[in-house]
Amino acid sequence: LSEPDRGAIMPRGRRKNLIELNIPGREKIQLRHLVSDVNGTLAVDGRLIPGVSRALSRLSDRLEIHLLTADTHGRQEQIDAVLNLKAIRIPAGDEAKTKADYVAHLGPESVIAIGQGANDREMLRTAGIGVCILSEEGLSSATLNAADILVPDIHAALGLIEKPIRMVATLRE
Ligand SMILES: [Mg+2]
After folding, report:
1. What is the pTM of this model?
2. How far, in Å, is the centroid of ligand 1 from the Cα of 27?
């Protein structure tokens, strides 16, 4: 996992737009990367949630997209094919730390991370913005407590990136 670009949907080259957040009560945040869990977050029972592929493709103009997965359902190859990318497989072991290290390597303040499982806890805590979703596969209560924002589903999570003012509204103090 030493090369943080391996999970990017789009080849690097042309510079992405970044997303700048000016949240009252916080340092200015410049987001350049979306790091997302797959199972429970983008997929249920190993199958992509309808609409996710199109939504991710829209966002790939604005942020570098990285998918991290333990591939619980053994269906990541099919998901990769639909999304036209290669997600990063997290080896069994300390999955929470591996995911958090990946975010730290990218520059944690430049990352918005999305997840729901216990192994997403530290990555949400580490990222500049950690987004937790209520999912069909459930939500780890520890991960909920490590997140900045809870949203009802993946579409709402990706909607925060399309309309960043929603994050400002929720996080301003
Ligand atoms: Mg998960």
Report:
1. 0.90
2. 29
